[in-house]
Amino acid sequence: MIEHYKDGTPCECDKMVRKYFPMSGGPLPDRPFNGQLYSELPYVNKKANGERRAYWENGFLKSRIDYKDGKKHGHAKEYFWEQDFEGQVGISTEYAEGKKCGHKIAFWRNNKTWYEKNYDLYGQKHGLQIFYNVSEVSKGRVRNEKGEILWEEEWFHGRMLKSTAGKFCGV
After folding, report:
1. What pLDDT, on a 0 to 100 scale, did the predictor assign at position 133?
2. DSSP readout, 58-98?
3. Most buried of the four, 36, 41, 109, 130, by CB within 10 Å?
C-alpha cells in the first residue's frame, strides 16, 4: 500500500500514523482538534519503519528521524522553528538499533557549531567530545562568540578519561 506524507512524498507502508496538536498545545494521539499536523510515522508489520516527520505548531518541519523495526535507526535531524531559520538543522544525530552511535553535532542559529559528540554502538559516549560556544557551564556562565573551543572531553565507552575544563579522570 502506498501512503503519502503531508508534502505528497510517497511512502510504502501498511499504515501512516498521524498525530495532531490540540487547541491548548502539545501532541495528542489521533485526535485532530485544530487540524494542525504534529507528526507522521509509517508502520510496516505493526512496527515503526521509515522516516518520522514532526512539525512545529507553525507548520515548519521540526525533525526527521529514521526508524527500522520500531527503533530509531539511521539519521535524525532536528530543525529550528523560526521562519528566518526554516530548514536549518539544529542537531544531527546517528542511531543504530535505537541507540545513539557515531557522530552527533549541534549548531547555533548562526550556523556555527555548538558541540560535537561521539558514541559507541552501545549508545555510550566514546572518543572526543568538543564544546565550542557554550552559554552555561556548571554554575558559571561562559560565552565565546568566535567559535573557539572552550573545552574538550575524552571518553572511553561511557567513562570520561580527561577533560580540559577541569580534572583528569584517569583510566
Report:
1. 55
2. TS-EEEEEEEETTEEEEEEEEE--SGGGTT-EEEEEEEETT
3. 41
